[in-house]
Amino acid sequence: MQITASTRNPLDTEPELLAIPLTELDPARWRLPARVAALDKQLGGALSAALAQGDFRGKRRETLLLYPHEGSAKRVLLIGLGAESDLDGRALREAAGQAIHAARRARASSPSLVAPSGRRMRAPALCQALAEGAVLGVYRFDRYQNPSNEDGNGAVERLQIHLEKSGDLRSARAGIQRGVTLADSQNLARDLSNEPPNVMTPAKLAQTAEKMAKRVGLKARILEPNELKKHKLGALLAVAQGSHNKPRLIVLEHNAPKATRGKKKPTRHRPTVCLVGKGVCFDSGGLSLKPAASMVKMKHDMSGGAAVIGAMRAVALLKIPLHVVGIVGAVENMPSGHAYRVDDILTSASGKTIEVTNTDAEGRLVLADCLHYAQNQFEPEAIIDLATLTGAASIALGPWAAAVVGNHDRLAEAIVAAGETSGERFWQLPLWDAHRDHMKSKIADVRQTGGRDAGTITAAAFLSHFVADDKPWAHLDIAAVADTALTSPTQARGATGFGVRALLELLGGWKGLKLN
Ligand code: BES
Ligand code: ZN
Ligand code: ZN
Fold first, then answer.
1. How far apart are CA 459 and CA 215, in angstroms?
2. Would the N or C end of the chain have less CB density within 10 A of its end CB?
3. Mutate to test the pocket of ligand 1, among 333, 355, 360, 365 (most ligand atoms within 8 A of CB)
4. Using CA positions, which residue lies closest to atom 13 of ligand 1?
5. Catalytic: which of 35, 178, 364, 501?
6. Active site residue 364
7. Within this chain, do residues 142 and 236 fall inside the same structural domain, yes or no?
């Protein structure tokens, strides 16, 4: 789908569908914005007639489809944005998503959308949100359905966004471009996560990431099992050892510093931020096998890794002026005669030993080695990991937010704030010494699990033993939000691609963490 911006009168283009988002109208004394009033006039008063009947109020997600007798628009869709004082990116994304769904239903291949004249948002941010909503809204994972199973809707080839002022056109186009890049990258994360586990194996995930990297100019390195052994990633390898599908470590780099000859260490120009993702392509639980019902959807257990890969795509295309490294530990957690056991003691890449207490707590083992690898290889200014780590995240926050736990409050707060802007909700949970102490083992350095209490925090507490105390680190537990049944105009059932937009919001405004 192509998205264009124009300042022409939308009726000049004779649209098959003209979508007009409107903020909430006072039922007694409603007045249309001047530009919409002019369109209404050309459409023979079709809009004001509906409003006079009280058939449309502009409430959030409210829609009304009209077939005006006059003017050149075949259909007009009024879309409610809710109260003007609350107008935000989410309302705009959803409105654009609704416009796209209506166009598909009407088989209108090139609909037009009137950009609302938001007083609170300027043209680039407004257009970015509309573009994101359209691209996210059009997403479906249907590649495994035969054409006979299709829903009968049409494809949308082009969305034209109509702006009021020509002065805004250039910046609006930049906003659209940014929105399309972000949403396409989020849709890549959705695709990787939605692919079934018999297709998206660790090797396939690595190969897909590598291909994407080549296309967008990222440096890519895939570590195969023998290299993982060389790097002594004993915790990651333990999880992987029960599966026929062998593990990979995916390392993607944006703005990789060029190694200078003669010097051992490359000269560094830009601060480094590492993104680490849990890439468990299927989580059966291993020997601590999951009950049948809990195993369903465990193909999504690589969603943290998928978000990292999606974010790296956007980081490259948006030319973020940082050295960003994406590291994904891709494994499969399976039971077999080769599988790791409960009571095993593992030696992690850091040298710390781990007492295994539940093979279903595999994600933290994979991350422990990835976090160590990130610190050891790249000496980053900050590390952010994303993982579908604990079912307890759903108990704590439900399907409405991801948990943030870490060792650096300002980094955590910056992530929460970035999510507020991007429309992804994060909520910080505490991490105290008591939690960290709770994860000490009587027979090894640390134990893998900490019991029922505060499961999301104790998982993070385990991870904290593999991060230096003075290394700013945030752990994002996305278990409750990585795939969803909470559908919306911008979210089909299945993988969400949660985290991609927030990461880019954070990295795009990165000022460093030196003040703390
Ligand atoms: N992948 C799961 C966490 C998960 C659960 C993600 C539900 C999405 C939905 C993780 O590997 C896991 O099994 N965690 C265990 C940890 C426990 C054994 C300490 C859990 O949360 O039950
Ligand atoms: Zn598990
Ligand atoms: Zn898992």
1. 36
2. C
3. 360
4. 360
5. 364
6. yes
7. no
Q: Is the CB of 283 under 6 A from ligand 1?
A: yes
* Residues 318, 377, 240: CA angle, nearest 5 degrees: 95
Domain match, 388 and 242 both: yes
- Token digits of residue 464: 């904290």
C-alpha 466/C-alpha 277 separation (Å) is 15
Query: CATH no. for residue 142?
Result: 3.40.220.10
Check whether residue 145 and residue 185 sit in a common domain: no
**Residue 459 CA, closest ligand 1 atom number:** 19
Show which of 164, 189, 205 is a domain's final residue.
Answer: 164
Which atom of ligand 1 lies nearest, measured to the CA of 301?
A: 1
Considering the domain boundaries, does residue 170 fall inside one?
A: no
Which residues 6+ apart lie within 8 Å of 231 measured at CB? 223, 349, 373
Is 230 catalytic? The answer is no
Q: How many domains does the chain divide into? A: 2
Task: Tell me: do 286 and 188 sit in the same domain.
Answer: yes
**What order do you get walking across the sheet with 473-477 strand by strand?**
219-223, 248-254, 323-333, 272-283, 382-387, 473-477, 402-406, 426-428
Give the residue numbers spanning the domain of 253.
181-511
Q: 283 and 152 in one domain?
A: no
Is the C-beta atom of 483 inside 6 A of ligand 1?
A: no
pLDDT digit string (tens) for the chain, length 516 residues: 999 999 999 999 999 999 999 999 998 899 999 999 999 999 999 999 999 999 999 999 999 999 999 999 999 999 999 999 999 999 999 999 999 999 999 999 999 999 998 677 889 999 999 999 999 999 999 999 998 767 778 999 999 999 987 778 999 999 999 999 999 999 999 999 999 999 999 999 999 999 999 999 999 999 999 999 999 999 999 999 999 999 999 999 999 998 766 655 655 579 999 999 999 999 999 999 999 999 999 999 999 999 999 999 999 999 999 999 999 999 999 999 999 999 999 999 999 999 999 999 999 999 999 999 999 999 999 999 999 999 999 999 999 999 999 999 999 999 999 999 999 999 999 999 999 999 999 999 999 999 999 999 999 999 999 999 999 999 999 999 999 999 999 999 999 999 999 999 999 999 988 644
Does some domain include residue 172?
no
How far away, in angstroms, is 362 Cα from ligand 3 center? Answer: 6
